[in-house]
Design a protein that fits this description.
The chain is α/β, with parallel strands linked by helices. It contains five helices and five strands, in the order H-E-H-E-H-E-H-H-E-E. It has two domains: 30 residues, no CATH class; 139 residues, Carbonic anhydrase (Beta-carbonic Anhydrase, Chain A, 3-Layer(aba) Sandwich). Strand 1, helix 2 and strand 2 form a beta-alpha-beta unit. The N and C termini lie far apart (46 Å).
């Protein structure tokens, strides 16, 4: 199976106000949108430290509007996103900087239903190696059980020697159809406690 077999289905056509002009690229459209944004921009006078002292780690899935889903405003949190929302070495790096240099104390981990990583395996790396002649140095971090992967991610955060604050680490699964979060109990914790 080639990596092309893992390509997403045809994307939804862009909304009319987001359409790319003839001969333009998506990046051109985004740069133009930024020009319009900058024209009305006013410096909010904020510090880089999140007001709520929280870092949110979540999947990069385009269906999830984290700020809206969590009732967050600009400046409330640090947002760290990657494929699957899994806790990798780079996520630990970002959380460490977030806590030690910028004062966050709480960590929220958010995976979601119908995640693309549930349909991949680590064979994806082998397929890439066959296609490009080099195996990626990173793991795919695919999973079959989203709840278990949230537990594993919580454990990775809680056991990192680099993080100062590991007492307020909570994990959730976001339902992409209902918009609701479902909290996941950490490994070893009895839900009746």
């Amino acid at each position: 199976m080639s990596t092309a077999a893992h390509s997403p289905a045809e994307p939804t056509p862009p909304r009319p106000h987001l359409a790319v002009r003839d001969g333009g690229t998506v990046t051109d459209r985004l740069v133009e949108a930024n020009r319009q944004y900058a024209g009305a921009f006013e410096d909010p006078g904020m510090d880089a430290r999140p007001v709520l002292q929280v870092a949110v780690v979540a999947c990069m899935d385009a269906r999830i509007d984290l700020h809206a889903a969590l009732g967050l405003e600009l400046g409330d949190c640090h947002t760290i996103r990657n494929a699957g929302g899994v806790v990798t070495d780079d996520v630990i790096r970002s959380l460490t900087i977030s806590q030690r240099a910028l004062g966050t104390r709480s960590v929220i981990l958010i995976h979601h239903t119908s995640c693309g990583l549930e349909s991949l395996t680590e064979d994806f790396r082998i397929e890439l190696e066959e296609e490009v002649g080099q195996r990626p140095p990173w793991a795919v971090e695919s999973f079959r059980d989203v709840d278990q992967d949230v537990r594993q991610s919580m454990q990775r955060v809680r056991t990192s020697p680099f993080l100062l604050h590991t007492d307020d680490v909570r994990g959730f699964v976001f339902d992409v159809r209902s918009g609701l979060l479902r909290e996941i109990e950490p490994a070893g914790r009895n839900p009746q406690e």
